[in-house]
Write a structure and sequence with these properties.
Blueprint lengths: L1 H13 L10 H8 L1 H4 L6 H6 L8 H5 L3 H10 L14 H11 L5
Bound molecules: heme C.
The site of heme C has 19 residues, from helix 3 and helix 6.
Length: 105
């Protein structure tokens, strides 16, 4: 609670909206995306259900810019990847897009 008040005071004092670095890409990924995407290797049971889920390896990210990935998350893809724009804020989607790039080992 004290943190929330302090953060609110900070934001008001700076007359600035919450910035991108405020969103925790890892936590947002884990609560919204991991159930289908695993940690870059789709969850096996889900892969059976949605065989179109890609593996997120270095080649996947080499073929896409961050803008492409933000657009896919925002607008969805195909039948089973929904548009997240009504669930997540733009800065949250950006934070997730940055985080998933770190998944390939
Ligand atoms: C219900 C399961 C499900 C959830 C939850 C889900 N996705 Fe997906 N995702 C999919 C499927 C299915 C595809 C493949 C879509 C296609 O190619 O038709 C996909 C594809 C993608 C792709 C690849 C798009 C491309 O360029 O080919 C990205 C990036 C992605 N999802 C990110 C996310 C993020 C980030 C989240 C959480 C905010 C998320 N997904 C949550 C099912 C899911």
């Amino acid at each position: 609670m004290r943190y929330v008040v302090a953060a609110a005071v900070f934001v008001l004092a700076n007359h600035a909206p919450l910035q991108a670095q405020g969103a925790d890409g890892k936590a947002l990924f884990e609560s919204n995306c991991k159930k289908c995407h695993g940690t870059g290797q789709p969850v096996p049971a889900i892969k059976k259900l949605f065989p179109e889920i890609p593996v997120w390896d270095a080649a996947f990210f080499a073929a896409r810019t961050e803008t492409d990935i933000v657009a896919t998350i925002t607008n969805g893809k195909g039948k089973n990847m929904k548009a997240w724009r009504e669930v997540l804020k733009a800065d949250e989607i950006e934070a997730i897009a940055k985080y998933i790039r770190t998944l390939p080992k």
